[in-house]
Every structure is written in C-alpha cells, then in structure tokens.
Amino acid sequence: MTKRILIIEDNELNMKLFYDILTYNNYDTEKSYDGLEAYNKIKENNYDLIILDIQLPKLDGFSLIEKLKKENIATPPIIIVSACAMDSDKQKAKQYDINNYLTKPIDINNFIKTVKQKLGEI
What we know:
Layout: E1 4-8, H1 12-24, E2 28-32, H2 35-44, E3 49-52, H3 61-70, E4 78-82, H4 87-95, E5 101-103, H5 108-118
Parallel strand pairs: 1-2, 1-3, 3-4, 4-5
Helix pairs in contact: 2-3
C-alpha cells in the first residue's frame, strides 16, 4: 500500500521540490500551504508522515503541533524542514518528540533517506 505524506510548506519552490522528490519515489503526496489548512487535513485524513515547515501563514508549525496535541488528535511521525537552524527551534522540536529537523536548502539524498527511515522502510 502506498504511503501517504502531507507536505506543509508555504514556499512554492520548496513545495515543488518536496512534492517532486516524494512523488518520484512513489508516495501519495498531498500539499498544504498554511497551518490552518493542514490542521483541517490532519483532522479529516490519515497520513503516514508529515513534512512540516515552521514558519507558515495562519498557524505556524509549532502552534499546529500544540493544537493537535491539545485536542488529542493523532499525528503520524513528523519531519521538520525549516530555514531556521536555530538551536532553540531544534530544542523545541525535541520537546514534541520530533527528532528529525532538516535545514533548508535540503540535501536531497538525506531528505529521502530520512523519509524512508521515518516510514520504517530502511
């Protein structure tokens, strides 16, 4: 069965890159351009993995995670992909049990390796 991945990214070029990489690797991929839209998609659908930017319109990545946890909405594994490489953001991610924090620009081989690891494929 094909794994479903939700990409939450507001930058069109990054979205295209992530989408192209994931669809090329035969994943069923959906797009969301802001945190509020993503919240609604996560509530209504089941995903195997979420690719999450931190700086998003309407609801930033960390606020999205907090909202989902507060409402006890089950979430799949999350990989944060952010241009912000600040230690404080990485520490905050760890507080939410998110150990995969990739910085932009991404290394494509590392990105797909991380995705496959999170999905239990390697």
